[in-house]
Amino acid sequence: MEFGMGLPVEVRGVEGSVLIEWAKRIDSGPFNTVAVTDAIVDPAFESLTTLAAAASVTRRVRLMTVVIGSPPRNTALLAKQAATIDALSGGRLSLGLGVGELVEDFAASGVEMKGRGKRFEEQLTELKRIWSGGLVGESGKPLGPEPHQPGGPELLIGGWAERAIARVGRFGDGYVGAALTEDLVTDREYQIALRSWKEHGRDGKPRFVQNVYFALGDEAKNDREAFLRHSYEGSPEYDLEAIARVTPTTEQEIRDIAGRIEATGADELIFHSVNADIEQIARLEQALF
Q1: Number of folded domains in the chain?
Q2: Which helix (H) or strand (E) holds 158?
Q3: How far apart are CA 165 and CA 147, in angstroms?
Q4: Partners of 64 in the β-ladder
Q5: CATH of the domain at 129
Q6: Domain range for residue 6?
Q7: Strand 268-273 to strand 207-214: parallel, antiparallel, or no bridges (unpaired)?
Q8: SS3 at position 154
Q9: How far lies 132's CA from each of 65, 94, 183, in Å?
Q10: Which of 132, 52, 55 has the alpha carbon at shortest distance from 124?
Q11: Cα(57)–Cα(156) distance, integer angstroms
Q12: Which residues contact 35 (CB under 8 A, 6 or more apart)?
């Protein structure tokens, strides 16, 4: 199993220069991926813009969104942004997309949540068509640039509902999850994705990427509590105590959660720091390698 790290875009008050330094440091070490989370109505840095900046200061690591809820976004613009990052980075983009669950993102974009599953499937079809050189608009022109990866960037489908995960076989290259509770530190989601993959006659197997939060250092538990309270308190669908139980704060807990997730068959585990201290990179590296 490979390991990646998320940029601390969700940490309150983080500066852009800090994110750039994180990307450079991660690229210089043993990690496989630099990832970013995404939300529209949030003070966090926008995911694709951030990855474009990261592309300019990295040479090796994959660049991944985990995940963009794409139905509120314009499909042609999303296709162009993703193709641009893929071309700029020499084919290092992994685009994690989901149906979207944030009510405020839909409201801010003027898009109805009702029917978002159907819209998501239409988007996935259109993205692939555009990346393959399909013509768009009344002018009938292609929408460039051409992605570096033939047919477009690696496409990972996110979600927890069976119907959402089952889209992997038809549209995706793999499944990307987030282990926010004990119940999600399993292979249930991946097995649904694998079954869908086989049902659609795909060769090989889908890629399986998992994500967790972490904190290390003397103030790790306090950092975890502050971050989770800021990010999730007041959201009825999230249980702060449940998330805390799968957010490691010691080197041993890091190794334990990595071992448990590797046992589910994951190909890659991405750790997202709950604070922006760049020493978190070295601490995590020491725990894992």
Answers
A1: 1
A2: strand 154-158
A3: 25
A4: 35, 94
A5: 3.20.20.30
A6: 2-288
A7: parallel
A8: strand
A9: 21, 16, 38
A10: 132
A11: 24
A12: 4, 5, 6, 7, 63, 64, 65, 66, 211, 270, 272
**pTM confidence score:** 0.96
Q: Contact 79/126 with Cβ under 8 angstroms?
A: yes
Per-residue pLDDT tens digits of the chain, which is 289 residues long: 999 999 999 999 999 999 999 999 999 999 999 999 999 899 899 999 999 999 999 999 999 999 999 999 999 999 999 999 999 999 999 999 999 988 998 899 999 999 999 999 999 999 999 999 999 888 788 888 999 999 999 999 999 999 999 999 999 999 999 999 999 999 999 999 999 999 999 999 999 999 999 999 999 999 999 999 988 876 767 888 999 999 999 999 999 999 999 999 999 999 999 999 999 999 999 999 9
Report residue 30 CA to chain centroid gap.
19
Q: In Å, what is the CA distance from 8 to each residue of 35, 277, 283?
A: 9, 9, 15
Let me know: does 113 contact 172? Beta carbons within 8 Å. no
d(CA 284, CA 289): 8
Distances (CA, A) of 129 to 122, 126, 196: 11, 5, 21
C-alpha span between 289 and 280 (Å, rounded)? 14
